[in-house]
Amino acid sequence: MRIVMNAAVYDRRPSGLGIYARELCAALHRHHDDLIVYTSRPDDLPSARRIRSLGDPSRGWRGHLCRLLWTQTMLPLRARRDRADVLVNTVPEGPLLPGCRQVTVVHDVLPLFFPGDFPRQQWYFRAFVPAVLRASWAIIADSRQTADDVARHYRIPPERITVVPPGVDFTRFRPQHDGDAVASRFGLQRYVLFVGNIRPHKNLQVLVEAVARLDAGITLAVAGYRDPRYWPLVAARIDRLGLRDRVRVLDYVPEGILPALYSAALAVVVPSLYEGFGLPVLEAMACGAPVIASTAGGLREAAGEAAIRVDPGDVEALAAQLRRVIGDAGLRADLARRGLAHARAFTWDRTARGVLSVVKQTGLSLQTGGA
């Protein structure tokens, strides 16, 4: 069975979606010997064939538009030319007329919950994503939360959706003994860490409010793109609270550095109002970092019982838990131990096997003439 992977979302500055595409494709290559991957970065992936970088997400709305056009025109042509049996879309971007069976991965439906934060994407998710899913033979969701959201919002029978959680690359994300030295290069010593894009649903402003209630020796490190649409509101809150010297914004942090920052943090905080899953939770745990996570969305599936859970709207509760973790070395060690054990259950090989099982069922149905 020839499997063709639509990994156009993976580019030179990969977000969580790009990392998912890269790691899934690499793991599938280890488990299936007839695989073709379409990406603008073929040197990073086995079995890859180059596509133009015009559709790279890092190009902003122009990249998204070019990728949409490529998906509807060139992708089905290339899949047909490469004699694909099954096309796998690593995000909910796929052709409406694929020319072969396709399987589509959905990570979340955030634009439906926060339309004001996703002014363009909300229309895509309302009008286009349901059409892509109808044109897909099977759907894969990162979490039970996302599966339920997809079934409810798009009225898709639950039996068409399979939950396959993402994994962690333990060759990259593991406890780093030089974490303190790397952190010091950023001017960080005693700090808590936030990793993610600075969008309103990430709830960074609540975390800033909580840090303002902590001892003056504690710094908040923010590793994420300083989105000009949303950063000014956060910056204004930081200034109002007198935290300019206690919040360090690192912008996009390369993957080679991020594990060290995880490892040296007193705590990694994921305070989101909603997540389809929450990969930074597992990355932090794999690096031996204590994690404090929101009770919202798919974070409960990502964190399990290995993190401290806090209502994302309760600033006082978040501040109290931060004080507790920062002030108790024994608790930090216990959370680190539990987190490492929990994260080990989430491997990319396991993700690849789950995806491959769905793909093979799709291909088998095709061979047997299933409807």
Task: Give a structural overview.
With about 375 residues, this protein is of the alpha/beta class. It folds into 2 domains: about 5-165 and about 345-370, Glycogen Phosphorylase B (Rossmann fold, 3-Layer(aba) Sandwich), CATH 3.40.50.2000; about 180-345, Glycogen Phosphorylase B (Rossmann fold), CATH 3.40.50.2000. About 45% of the residues lie in helices and about 15% in strands. The chain has helices spanning about 15-30, 60-80, 110-115, 120-135, 145-155, 180-185, 205-210, 230-240, 260-265, 280-285, 300-305, 315-325, 330-345, 350-370; strands at about 5, 35-40, 50, 85-90, 100-105, 140, 160-165, 190-195, 220-225, 245-250, 265-270, 290-295, 310. The strands form 2 sheets. The chain has a 7-stranded parallel beta sheet with strand order 3-2-1-4-5-6-7, sandwiched between helices. The chain has a 6-stranded parallel beta sheet with strand order 10-9-8-11-12-13, sandwiched between helices. Helix 8 (about 230-240) links the parallel strand 9 and strand 10 (about 245-250). The mean pLDDT is about 95.
- Based on helices, strands and strand pairing, what is the structural class? alpha/beta
Q: What would you call the shape?
A: globular
Strand content: 5-15%
Classify the helix fraction into a percent range.
40-55%
List the topology elements:
Blueprint: E1 3-6, H1 16-31, E2 35-39, E3 48-50, H2 61-81, E4 86-89, E5 101-106, H3 110-113, H4 121-134, E6 138-141, H5 144-154, E7 161-163, H6 179-185, E8 191-195, H7 204-212, E9 219-223, H8 231-240, E10 247-249, H9 258-264, E11 267-270, H10 279-286, E12 291-294, H11 299-303, E13 308-310, H12 315-327, H13 329-343, H14 348-368
Parallel strand pairs: 1-2, 1-4, 2-3, 4-5, 5-6, 6-7, 8-9, 8-11, 9-10, 11-12, 12-13
Helix pairs in contact: 1-14, 6-9, 7-8, 7-12, 10-13
